[in-house]
Design goal:
eight-stranded mixed beta sheet; Rossmann fold; binds iron/sulfur cluster; four-stranded antiparallel beta sheet; nucleotide-binding; 12 strands; binds magnesium ion
Length: 321
Amino acid sequence: MAELLEVVNLKTHFFTKEGIVKAVDGVNFSLKPGQTMGIVGESGSGKSITALSIMRLVPTPPGKIVDGRIYFNGRDILRLSEEEMRKIRGNEISMIFQDPMTSLNPVLTVGEQIVEALVYHRKMKKKEAWAEAVELLEKVGIPEARSRVKHYPHQFSGGMRQRAMIAMAIACNPKLLIADEPTTALDVTIQAQILDLMRNLKKNYGTAIIMITHDLGVVAELCEQVLVMYAGTPVEFTDVKTLFGNPKHPYTWGLLQSIPQLYDDEKQRLKPIRGMPPDLKNMKECCPFVNRCDYSKAICHRMRPVAKELAPGHRVACHLY
Ligand code: SF4
Ligand code: MG
């Protein structure tokens, strides 16, 4: 099957007074229609900037996509005009954020915002769009949708706002939905409901999903492919079974060990990876993980590892291989 999304050597840098921050520095991955991929890594690993680059929403300046290609349905979206991109954004590619207020407009009712998208992208008549907005709110599990549709975002609870944002994101039946830590701020029950909602989207509409998370439990439940990022670079890319069953990168090992093991004794509960991520303004020609790695060799201090395909579909950037 042809790829829906192909990200090739993406580099997104930030030009600050203190220096160039290489927030994303050579990311590669691809996604087929209907597939779900997780992007995991600590904060500052470049997960969100990768997503914003795909949406072409990187704040410019100080940010800039300095290199790479992003093919969506075979078209390099980095070469589209802003006008053409607006037709794709919110229509073929949608994004949901950790904080719904980032994408909900506080001065419009939830219904008005959904209707706006339906009229602009799907060329619906107003009346038809209002009926569709109610249906969408029902679909994401908002009770009394018919009256709720006329409420403002601040009249919704946190969990309902998240649902409203998802309703808006799926209004135009996007081929790709990017979710940036959509459940982090929510309590466990609502988290589970939102994940269910995403699973249904995938099942019923064949929506491809990129799930950005630091929660490997979410990855295990939802994703087929996983990209592990560290310091702006991809360190491991594989299917979810291999990630948990046969992970190869020392950073991935560290992430897996840092999952809380509820039933183990206290000492084994949390095993944070020692040390700190490198300063993205001062990246050296070494492995970015070298100062935290228990397996480093001489070459790791001298040369940045390039990704190798260890098995079909399993790519790892590490000198151990
Ligand atoms: Fe560790 Fe070397 Fe692999 Fe980097 S390249 S993760 S330092 S073994
Ligand atoms: Mg983030």
